[in-house]
Amino acid sequence: MWLALSVACAPNDPPDAAAPAAPAALTAPTERAPAGLTYEVYVRSFQDSDGDGVGDLDGVRSRLPELATFGVRTLWLMPVFPAFGPAGYDVTDYGSITAEYGDAAALAALVEAAHGLGMRVLLDLPFNQLHRDHPWFQAAEAGDPDAQALFVYRDEPADNDRWFPSSAGGSYYARFGADLPDLDWASAETAARLDPIFDLWLDAGADGYRLDAVIMLVEEDGVTEGSAASHALVGEWVERARAAHPRTFFLAEASEWTLPASVSWLDQEGAPGADAVLDFPRHDAFLDAAASGEAWPLAWALQTEVNYRAEGMAGFLGSHDLDRLPSVVPDAQLRRTLRTIQLLAPGSPVLYYGEELDLPDTSTGTGQDWAMRAPMPWSAADGAGFSAGTAWFPPDPSYAEGLNWEDEAEDPDSMLSLVRGLSCLRRALSLDEGADWTLDDADPHVLAFTRTNAAGTVAVRANLSGDVVSAARPPAGLVDLSTGSGTARTALPAFGAVVYASEVGCRVAP
To answer: Residue ranges per domain, the chain?
Structure first.
């Protein structure tokens, strides 16, 4: 099990945001503990350690102490394998680390350092498709029958936008475009070649996998998304991995839009599955509530999850595929309120790198990658502290105006300080291990909920509208964590929130 994190704040003494206490070192989980606060890293854009302008595994390792200051428990690395494009989801070799990022020794050093800080490390595994330059597909197109058994071929010519002409005759299936042929997981040859990949990286120290595009793994009887065969395949992967590495953790990207469909990818009684699933229905509920100013989309989604199965849901507001929140929710105060809900709601919150800073989509670019994948701004120095060389993709210019890690760490009212405070509260109240949930009566524009366990109670009052509204009273005996006062608010400001909790010494000022 996870050892207990020491709360980075002393009771009755709100911490100085500029100098948070270092968290105690933890051992890596020996069982499949909850995901906890999960952090997605685009290695290429996180930290460059050697001055070549490209982020790398040694750079990620050097920044783990910063991540520990806000309680990251699961580190998710976007694909680290050789690939055609910079994002890494078009793999050309699953069996090695791309040279720009380092090598297997660099990955092992990163995993060891993460374990010393109590973090598990997940590798992103894109097994639905690979790039057409992969040697296997090149051999298939040259007519090798063993290689052709790895892909979905048919004799007929292409007849829609998912089938493409093959050099060997007929057509091949590629859900995401001609350059990304789908692997045929109904073929024994595919399993024979790729099952050992699970063993390879788990043996190298990785704690598990984020499984990419699981709903599209196996097309079966005309079902192209969420087939029974896709569910069964994930279960087989889980059983295979856990036979040799029992603590292996799986986070599934199942882009389902209903809760029952999302939950179907989790471990079920008598049927293995993922430990956590990215929560697309909750993501949409967040955006619906933000756009409408009404609480009901989030209230309904969260209450339904609690009634159904919340512990395996990984709630996110952004990712490598989505515009960053400032592009979607222009009001900065509303973004703080949404982040507060995200980090205190049931389940496991997922942060995409830079979200703890309220990083925007970049306004500059070179055409090499998307606006939400720009380098992490660590300081106001030249290059944003990301690289001593010329960054592969230019950082957003806002880094020179205070939107960077160093400046926000000194500002008690920054997004980084808010995230640290919320994480402090999560740890103090052991929210990763669960807490009872109550949806409280409030104004239609206010999401009001209370969570309670043996460690204490937290009550959130979040105004999603642009008007001042009355504040629902919290349970007795709780403290307003932004003021340290036991006096309840009578009103909530526009887009504002207040967090009441047992007195645990964490400052939270949404």
So the answer is: 136-173
